[in-house]
């Protein structure tokens, strides 16, 4: 949020009222989105069509849901590296639950999300109460989730396909023309904005990110806040996996592998400090759209996988160098 | 306190790592159908040395209070590069080896530049450079293949005098010729000081930037040695994403098992070597105890989870409740 970010006050007051509360990083991110659309439109006029943009938003919504959870954790100054297999767990468990009796299909989505939340709970307990560095414990739970899923599937991809409700959630239409996945992302986004800026829980997340000691001394139950953030992150990762399974109409092993780096990159490119305590949700939305567009343009240009990885890494480093640097310490 | 007690205190993590390894290896050998033969030792050493190089690389960066999530990808990149250039006449092979090691150092140096002069957070910066390194590896080897000078490969992965695994001798030589000089140099001390307390080190006039840069570069060198050794071990180059990610993960586990503090400033690359061998032995133990292959990933994950939880939990050492919150 802008009140916690330090910028030259004189420059800030010259900006129009509407922009004054918006981070410079968020503006840069939106500027880059426009630039990418412009480059894309030079390549093909389809890039500015409504269909294409809606399609991109639909693809972005899976990443958006995951990145929302990741942002909560990063705002605390932690990181969640268990995203890939928690996503896969959520998707596989939702598909598996659908096979159980008549109640199964109705409970499929909640069951998948709860499984993700359980992994989040393990992460949260370990980070908040056992003080294990989040990077380490989430890497380890990622491996445990992978082991469980390998055991569950018997080493090969399960054939069970996504139930109708899951597919409807990802690809159906409540509002004509707008895929449900976008609506889901929008709802989660509204909830995130309210959570971060209008609740004491959200404010204590920013507080802990800035200084956990100070937050603790001001009476915040910091360990509970951290634990809940990890649970939310796990649940949102799993939910992203469920949506992805609905989109692909089945759950597959390693389906979440392509989401770890983008989700972190989206949050960081949106101006959230990786050290925690600073950043706005609007920036994360911008980061998610930016990364989805970048991926789309690279694949439209038929860039091979190798080139995509390189461009991807270079772009992220370039953007970080533009505005993701930690302040000079001396 | 006398001199040796200081020394013991400083080496405590490394010694615990050694103890964990010896204990696990003893259990492994006791249950191995063949017992401790030269063959068993050679296989165990070769597999352990692979991870040991990557773990040493990780240890160097962790000592500066950073983390390198690209070590596995440097390892894969140098493996793919070696499968192209470490071939032919002795002269060409030597040039190839030098080239591969230089490539590893370059990768490490880029990480160092981004972290030190770019002032980026090590986690994000190395995730991004890892993607770039993997992309380059994929460009070099879109499909697994290539070859390596087999005489050299067999010599390095074989046995000396029919008993001693050559890979262990090689590893010991690297420790003596690279790690110990680095540890004793001004740059090495600065790297430790940077991890221990950067402001204090800065105030004492330590060459912090030089120390950290040297640590990242030597880390790249170690990862490059690992990639080279992988090529000697498998005779091919392969840009496998899962393998790179796995090595990064286990290098962190090895560092923790080997008593290197993730907060920086404590531990040594030698500890990371013992940690790497201990981590490898967990995998071998599952084999010896004839565990269903389907259960192996889960059991390895649980072992990893327990190991890092014990190694990293700082709760027991804390006297003042405020010290929970760094």
TrEMBL record, chain A:
Keywords: Cell inner membrane, Cell membrane, Membrane, Transmembrane, Transmembrane helix, Transport
Signal peptide segment: none
Membrane topology: Multi-pass membrane protein
GO terms for MF: transmembrane transporter activity
Localization (cell): Cell membrane
Origin superkingdom: Bacteria
A GO CC annotation given for this chain: plasma membrane
Bilayer-crossing regions: 25-45, 57-76, 107-129, 136-157, 177-196, 225-247, 259-276, 281-300, 306-324
InterPro entries named in the record: ABC_transp_permease
Principal place of residence: membrane
Keyword Cell membrane: yes
Assembly mode: The complex is composed of two ATP-binding proteins (LsrA), two transmembrane proteins (LsrC and LsrD) and a solute-binding protein (LsrB).
Cited function: Part of the ABC transporter complex LsrABCD involved in autoinducer 2 (AI-2) import. Probably responsible for the translocation of the substrate across the membrane.
Name of the protein in its database record: Autoinducer 2 import system permease protein LsrD
Organism: Ferirhizobium litorale
Lineage per the UniProt record: Bacteria, Pseudomonadati, Pseudomonadota, Alphaproteobacteria, Hyphomicrobiales
TrEMBL record, chain B:
Keywords: Cell membrane, Membrane, Transmembrane, Transmembrane helix
Pfam families assigned: BPD_transp_2
Transmembrane segments: 12-30, 50-67, 74-92, 98-116, 123-140, 160-180, 213-235, 247-263, 270-289, 295-316
An example Gene Ontology CC term for this record: plasma membrane
Lipid bilayer topology: Multi-pass membrane protein
Residue ranges the record marks as coiled coil: none
Keyword RNA-binding: no
Native source species: Ferirhizobium litorale
Signal peptide, first to last residue: none
Location in the cell: Cell membrane
Molecular-function GO terms, alphabetical: transmembrane transporter activity
Name by which UniProt lists this protein: ABC transporter permease
Primary subcellular site in the record, as a coarse category: membrane
